[in-house]
Write a structure and sequence with these properties.
Layout (H helix, E strand, L loop, with lengths): L1 H12 L20 H15 L14 H13 L1
Protein name: Acyl carrier protein
Organism: Salmonella enterica (Salmonella choleraesuis)
Pfam family, one: PP-binding
């Protein structure tokens, strides 16, 4: 799952996957703006059939946090 999330991030932000680790901060390290974050979340929701929403955004600061929210949504 984490590899797929990283691939989605690289496509949405047009960056190299080598720049991303589990602890990479989406805004501080990758300089993602709010529209890019929404694009990432929409793509993840479409890919995994989940419904990550705005209320989940505080947990989505890092790749690890995003994967944690995704895992929780997949088990709901």
């Amino acid at each position: 799952m984490e590899n797929t999330v990283k691939q989605i991030i690289t496509k949405c932000l047009l960056i190299d996957e080598a720049e991303i680790t589990s602890d990479t901060h989406l805004v501080e390290d990758l300089y993602a703006d709010s529209l890019e974050l929404i694009d990432i979340i929409i793509t993840i929701n479409e890919t995994f059939g989940t419904d990550i929403e705005g209320v989940d955004f505080p947990e989505v600061e890092t790749v690890r946090g995003l994967c944690r929210v995704l895992k929780r949504k997949l088990t709901e």
